[in-house]
Amino acid sequence: MGRIAVVLALLFFTACSEKDQIRWITLDPGHFHAALVQKTMYPEINLEVHVYAPKSADLDLHLSRIESYNKRTDNPTQWKTTVYDEDDFYQRFLEEKQGSVVVLSGNNKKKTKYILEAIENGFHVFADKPMVIHPNEFKNLEKAFQRAEEKKLLLYDIMTERSEITTLLQKELSQQEDVFGTLIEGSIEKPAIVKSSVHHYAKEVSGKPLIRPAWFFDTQQQGEGLVDVSAHLVDLTFWECFPEQAIQQNDLELLSANRWTTPLSPVDFKKVTGLPTYPEYLSPYLQNDTLFVYANGAMHYTLKGHHAKVEVLWNFKAPEGTGDTHYSIMRGTKADLEILQTKQENYTPTLYVNPKEEFDLSHLKSTIDVLTKKHPGLRLIDHGNRWEVEIPNSLREGHEAHFAAVTRRFIEFYKQQKIPDWERTNMLTKYHLTTTALARAQKIE
What we know:
By secondary structure, this protein is an alpha/beta fold. The chain is built from 13 helices and 18 strands. The chain folds into two domains: about 170 residues, NAD(P)-binding Rossmann-like Domain (Rossmann fold); about 240 residues, Dihydrodipicolinate Reductase, domain 2 (2-Layer Sandwich), CATH 3.30.360. Strands 7, 10, 11, 12, 13, 14, 15, 16, 17 and 18 form a ten-stranded mixed β-sheet that branches. A six-stranded parallel β-sheet has the order 3-2-1-4-5-6. Strands 8-9 form a two-stranded antiparallel sheet. Strand 5, helix 6 and strand 6 form a beta-alpha-beta unit. Helix 5 runs parallel beside helix 6, helix 6 runs antiparallel to helix 13 and helix 9 packs across helix 13. The N and C termini lie far apart (about 55 Å).
C-alpha cells in the first residue's frame, strides 16, 4: 500500500469521532482467535486497543500476531496496542475501564467468570466460544445474560461458521420449499441434520505454524470436544433448520452423548507447544508417556421433533495437502443438501443437491439464478445422480476472514444497542445442551 493510500485509510478510520467509536479491550488472550478479530480494521473501532493480561508466552504470541498484521505488505492494519501485564492486571482492567467492549478468547476455565464480572462492571462482551465448559458453571452464564439484559449490555459469542459459503448456501437452499421440500423428522440411524467436524492440533495460522499453550490439552481449562467445537455445530443446527427463531430448552431432547480421547506422544506435544516435557497439571491424562485428551465427542438430540447429530473429532495432523474438514447433511422431502470435503473434492468444501422422487430441476435452476445475484459466479454441475453447486474462489474467504464477518455483525448490534431476542435465547439453549451432553457422557463412564 502506498503512502497516500495509508494516509487515506487513516483518515477513513478516524472519521468517526472518538466518543462515537467502540473502544476495544482484550482481556487475558490465550487463543489465536483473540488476534483474528483484529486482522481487519473497522471504522467503528478505535485504533487503540488496551490489553490486560499476565506476562506469559500466550500474551507474547498475541502481541506478535497483532504486530504482524500491522507490518504486512498487503493492506496492513494500524492498531495501537497499550499493554498492562503486571500481577494486578485484572483489578486494573476493572478499575481503569479503558474501553466499552471486552474481547475474550483464552483459557476457557476462566471464561464464564470473566463474562459475568465484565457484565457486572458495565462492559459489553464479545466472547469466543465456548462461553462455558463446566456443567456447574452454566448457572453463572444464565446470570450473565440476565444481568446483561437488565443493564442493557451486549453479550455475544463468535460464531464464525455461519459465514462459511457452503454452509450459508445450504441454509438458503433449505429455505426453498420448491427445491428442498421440508426437513424430514429423521431417526437416530438417519438424522434430519448432521454436522461433523474434524480438527487438527498441528496447523498454520496467518501463514505460520500454530504454537498452542500447554493448557489447551487440559480439558479442565480448554474444555472437552462436547462443549468446545460442538458449540459451533449446535449453533448451525438451530440457525439452518429454524432461521431467526428462538429455540427454547424444551424444544430439545438429548438422546445420547459420548466422548473419547485423542493420544499425543511427547514428540507430538513438543511440536505443537514447543515444550520439552508435560506440565504437572497434565499428569492425570498420562499413561506411560502418552497424553490422552478427551477432545472428541458426539451427541444425538431432537430439535423441535427433528433428529440431529453433532460430532467433533481431533487428530494430531491432517494428511498432506488437507486441513480441518467439515461434513454436513440436511435431509428434505424433495432433496438432501450435502456438504462433502473428501479427496474427490480436493478437500474443498463442496455442496451437493441430492434429488428425491418429487424433485423438479427447473426449480433448482431458477433458485440458483436468484442466488447468483447475491453470490456472483454460482453455477450447477450435473453429476448424473446429483447436482453440485459450484462456488467460485472469489466467494471462498477462508476461516480467518470469517472473524471479520462476525465482528461486523457485532458492530451492527452495538450500533442498535441490542442483540436480537432469538440470538440471546439460542445462545443460552445451545450452551445448556452442550454442558448437559458433557455431564451425561461423563456420568455414563
